[in-house]
Amino acid sequence: MLILALVLVATFGLLAWSLLASTDLAGRARGAALAQQQAERAAASGVEWAAAKLLAGELYDSRTSLVLDDGSALEVVFARAASPQVLARARSQGAEVTFGADLRTEGGAPLPYALAVFGGSIDLHHDVAVLGSAYLAGAPPIATGASGRLGIAGDLLLTAAAIDSSRVRQTAGETRFSVEASAKPVVDLTPFGTMTSGAVPVLRYSGPTTLSGQTLAGIVVVDLEVGQTLVLRNTTIDGTLVVRSFSAGLLGVGGGLLGGGGLLGTGLLPVVVRLQGASRVGGGTAWTGNLAVLAPDCTLDAPASTGSTLRGVVLVQSAESLKKVDVTGQLVVLGMVEAKAADLTVTRPDAFVPDTPIGITWPGTAAVRLDWRGPQ
Q1: Quick one: average pLDDT of 70-78?
Q2: Could you tell me which residues are beta bridge partners of residue 285?
Q3: What predicted TM-score, i.e. pTM, was given to this entire model?
Q4: Residues 28, 60: contact at Cβ < 8 Å?
Q5: Residues forming beta bridges with residue 158, ordered by sequence position
Q6: Contacts of residue 102, Cβ cutoff 8 Å, sequence gap at least 6
Q7: How many C-beta neighbours within 10 Å does residue 140 have?
Q8: Residues in a beta bridge with 371
Q9: What strand order describes the sheet that includes 62-67?
Q10: Which of the chain's termini has less CB crowding within 10 Å, N or C?
Q11: Could you give the C-alpha distances from 207 to 28, 138, 213, in angstroms and in order?
């Protein structure tokens, strides 16, 4: 009986020791797994932190050490010219993990205005109605002695402090003076040079062109030289109109070698897109979003319009004599506006969001794309 008792005690002792050992081993394994998970989460957080810093424009080539709330030690190395650009190394309770990623910035958010004018004073000889917010750069934003008024139902943002209140009639929103100047949208006409018809038709013209009584669909690309004019007379373009003028940009229409507004600039020899009769442009395409008119070196005028409409994003160098023209969407003028004729209305519906996948890059950075390279 004594021998049997000793055998049972030894057996149960071994079983107890084995159970305790296995429990301790399982605890250690769980602890190691938890430490590994914490290190992985910390390293991933380091990459995302770097992306957030880049989005805010605060992070360049640098090395940063951080301690997280859970006690994890984190080191983030950002090297713009390397790949991976970001290395995030985290240590947690003996576990160490390093993740890598490349960061790519994507274009800024579209301007939130119905009308945005980046050039000199607006010379109003007649009233202009803006249903939505407006951004006006320049000092003064509205020319002194102008006989017309700017009617606005929305916020009015001015980079200058002085304004002739008799020239503005605001029925909604607020007025903000001396706002920080916004960067101009960046225009890239290169994609339209080699574009060919596919799912979207592409029509091309060059030199002085008059399109009269036509209905066209797709993307219409017109190449003009200094002093040449495109006339749309009772013509409809269901899509996007792109006017390229390389000589104009070089000689001054876009602020080139001889300066905007000079002899070969917007003053005496402008490149002109002219609306006559009841012409209509807009709607965009599957390739161009809701881009209606892209003519960054051109003056848009409509002295003989009887009711022309532009639907979508319209970007031009300058605008003048827009008689009976209705812009629904957004009008961006890189230079100045001279309202010599009556009945220009710019309306931005609440649901309208500029969508320009090609042609226009909006200022700033809207997003940062993470290309994960995995554990390093």
Answers
A1: 89
A2: 289
A3: 0.72
A4: no
A5: 136
A6: 83, 84, 85, 86, 370, 371, 373
A7: 18
A8: 102
A9: 62-67, 73-78, 86-92, 95-107, 365-375
A10: N
A11: 79, 34, 19
